[in-house]
Every structure is written in structure tokens, then in C-alpha cells.
Please model this.
Amino acid sequence: MANYDIVGSIAIVKFPRDAKRSDKLRFAREFLSKHKHIKTVLEKSDKFKGRLRTQKTRYLAGVRTTETIHKENGCVFYVDVEKCYFSPRLSEERKEIAGKVKPGERVLVMFGGVAPYAIVIAKLSKAKEVVSVELGRACTKYAKLNVEKNKLQDRVEVLQGDVKRVVPKLKGKFDRIVMPRPKLKESFLEQALAKIKRLGSIHFYGFAGEEEKRKLVEEIKKECARHGKKIKVSRVKKAGDIGKKFYRWRVDFRVLN
Model:
């Protein structure tokens, strides 16, 4: 049984390893006939990889393209599904974070991608300013286009570069920092803690099995302590399945000093 994600007008399908090419093509053609809003069917041929979280796909049917326009939460996102990481499964997650933002807050989004978190936050909240930092040049190009298409140029700023270099240069501190980080060994908490206001909130995303959840939280507490920061964890939420018994977790905490 194949499973799939829909990004705009593109269906990205993951087949069982033993699926035959003829069966994949038949599935793709039938999918197009049943879902009129889908124009392209691609096969996910590999996992998201590298610091830029890109994926490889194979064309199966429909319009031969990897670029599309995705709509969610009253926002539009131009994205190339091979050049940029974008998960439609995080739509409610982005909406939930936006709902936590108080009027007048200054928000930083690290690892911002095509700016879905930044744009949804700006669209659904009364944040004063949202800054999105992204390493990938292709994603940054789409992020800036998305800010323009959503008419948020006055409230959302997109910056390209490594968060280790860009974030320390940002002026002032932030009320809230969102860290939808890729699965990397580094936590990047050092950069976030240096830019969060006293009593500010951080939403940290990490990856672990159910039994490792507590260890993830303890590691966050220990690293914050090493940097002289006391924190209070308010919530640990399962924010999606990554693999068999392996999950994306969101740890919400406030920095007390």
C-alpha cells in the first residue's frame, strides 16, 4: 500500500520496496484521474538528506515539474519539492505556534525554509516582526517570493545564511524563537539562548523514540544550564512520525533569566 503527501498540485508517493515499475505507473495514472486538483505524481526515491533537507523524486505521471503552489492557513507558498524541504503535515503545528504569539512580539524562526512558519505566524497573529533565517539559497529565493505573495513585506524579514553566523549579528532580542531544526547532532541552542529575552519562549524541535523523550528534555536543560540559563518546560508534544517508533517532538520552554 503506497502512502503519499500532497504539496499543492503535486502528489509525492512512497511505495513499498518491492513495488514494480508497472504498478507504480498504474497507481499514478489512477491517482490523477481520481484527484482532479493533482497535476503531477512523483515517486519519493530517497529520504530527506543533508543540512538542506532535500529529497530526490522520480517523475511518474502528469505535468513534469517539481514546482508548485501550496495553500494552507490562508497563506500561499511557492515551493520546489526537490530543492526545498516543505512538510504539509506540519500545517496544524504552524497554526498552533501562531496561536501562542502575543500582540507586539518579535519572533525569530531558525531553519526557516520557504518561510511557512514565519508567514503563518505573521498572518494569524499580531506579531510586530518575524525574522526567518535559512541556509539554502533556493529556499531563501522562494521564501522572499512567498513573503511578497502574502503581502507581508512590512512584518516578515527573510535572511539567507548559517544561523551560527546570521543570528549573532541580529539586533536586539526576541520574545519568541521557533526552532524547526533538521535532524542534526547540534542543537543550536547556544545561538537561540543568546537572542532570547528574559521570560521569552523557545519552541525546540528534536527527534527521538518514545522512550528517549525524557532524555531529549534533560539534554536541553543541561545545555541551557551550561550557558547560564534557567528554563521552565511547559509542554512536550509529539509533532509527527518520522519513522517506525521514531518521532518529531516539540519542547516548549521559557527562559527565566
The chain has a mean pLDDT of 94.
